Amino acid sequence: MEGQIGAQPSMEYKPIISDDVTELILDDHATFRRLFARLDETSDVNDLRHLWFELGPLLRAHAVAEEESFYPELLKAASDDDDVRDAIKDHNQIRDAVNDADNYDVGSVEWRAAVIRARDANSDHMAEEERGPLAAARRAMNMDERIHLGLQFLRLRNAFPSGRTGADDHDKDPRAYVEEHKRS
CA–CA separation, 62 vs 64, rounded Å? Predict the structure, then answer.
């Protein structure tokens, strides 16, 4: 593994082949699975650091993009309250684990425990989202709506790390989130 990871993050996102928000989210899920698997392949602290400094921000940006674009529209189109509440709860758990990992030295026992919590929460979230919200969106939204939403999702996800979106990356009360976005 040594020498495969350069000094700069590789930005693991793959080329976009669709603007459909459901496919973009699935593509991100595949990226997360690959990066977590790559963490398993090495014990070299420098490689771990490079991978984590890529994966942590990607997880945050993805959550923000879903919360700011996808879930509000899903609530309107499919009234998928329970799944959205659960997804927000999952994002809180992922965000908390990522934040915890960032407080420890990469490679330490505490860091590894936080990364495992992030992976477990993210794995559960992706499986639930793929069965619930993404399937509901495909049933409730036409392709034009999903493409429009996909472009919003990409703009938010890609701009989030720069701070240009003004998006909010903090834990949210799942019930309050659903109620707020059902009214808007």
Answer: 5
Residue pLDDT, tens place only, 56-65: 999 999 999 9
Amino acid at 4: Q
- CB-based contacts of 179, cutoff 8 Å, min separation 6: none
Q: Are 36 and 55 in contact (CB under 8 A)?
A: yes
What's this model's pTM, rounded to 2 decimal places? 0.87
Q: Tokens 């014990």 appear where?
A: 43
Rounded to the nearest 10 degrees, what angle do helices 133-140 and 81-102 cross at?
Answer: 140
Q: Could you give the residue ranges of the DSSP H alpha helices within the chain? A: 21-40, 45-65, 71-78, 81-102, 109-131, 133-140, 143-159, 174-183
For tokens 């059902």, the residue is 182
Whether 57 and 161 have beta carbons less than 8 Å apart is answered as yes
